[in-house]
Amino acid sequence: MMRSHAIRHADRATIVIVATSLLLWWLSTYHAASMPAWAPWDFSFSWFYATAFPLLWYGRGLRNLPANRRPARWRSAAFLLGTAIIYAVLQTRLEYLAQHMFFLNRLQHVVMHHLGPFLIALAWPWETILAGAPDVIRRCADARPICRILGLSRQPFIAAFLFVGLIALWLIPDVHFRAMIDPDLYLFMNWTMVGDGLLFWSLVLDPRDRAEAGISFGMRALLAIAIMFPQILIGAIIALATRDLYTFYAWCGRIYPSIGPLDDQNFGGLIVWIPPAMMSAVALILVLNALRLNEERRSADQPTMPAPWTGR
């Protein structure tokens, strides 16, 4: 009886989510000028569902898990904040601004690829989400192809290469121009940013020990630092450039004409340069703290050995 009630409740929640998505699509398509700044500028069903359903499953998971396995409140807060800021930069008026100023586009990508996924990974919400997800989602998560892909993405060299490589790829001027004028490629670019950010930071900020995570804390710390220097180099190249590299923004029209092409580009380069480097330092501190906590748990789990007999 309780299971059937839960299924009916989930069905109602799914209907509400789908109905809300249709309403937002209709409003943003036919009444865009009347929409407030916090509403979707260019509504995306994929981003809306990727936000709404994990939030639904997370809430259900909190109810389904026993009290001793529920995440701490600060972890839940980190998950909600990380999810909210990713949604905000992709489904509010900020997205329109990011399509007309390079430095705002870089700010958007820092949130999508760094800050948002960083907070979600720090929350470590995966067990809670799966505890509230439908059976089909849990089966997909346990499917062998999915496990193999996730295992491959957790190889340190591959993880670091993808993390820095995708940033560099979408900042190649010709590739960036094409992505900004092609809606499908633009959506794909944003999905790669969020997806790769979640995979990488979930590897670095994994709170489990080496036996469960498959990677040592030392390697996690090394990854956090290793990605910093290529990003500094990329940011410096953009910030110190003396010519306009990203002509798309002149072509489409900058939303703030008082900020010229080079200033816009220099600000964007600084955003690529400084905030990601600071986040690497924060990640290093968190990895060292996770190592300390695991060592304390291991010490607490070890039985106390009796003092050796001295014969006295």
Task: Give structural notes.
The structure is a single chain. The protein is mainly α and about 300 residues long. Helices cover about 75% and strands about 0% of the residues. The chain has helices at about 1-30, 45-65, 75-90, 95-100, 100-125, 125-130, 135-140, 145-155, 155-170, 175-180, 185-205, 210-215, 215-225, 230-240, 250, 260-300. Helix 10 crosses helix 11.
Total number of strands: 0
Low-confidence stretches: none
Beta content comes to under 5%
In whole angstroms, the N-to-C terminal distance is: 68 Å
Shape call: globular
How would you spell out the order of helices and strands?
A: HHHHHHHHHHHHHHHH
| SSE-based structural type | mainly alpha
Instruction: Note the total helix count.
Output: 16
The main pleated sheet reads as:
none
Give the proportion of residues in helices: over 70%
Average pLDDT value? Answer: 91
How large, in whole angstroms, is the Cα Rg? 22 Å
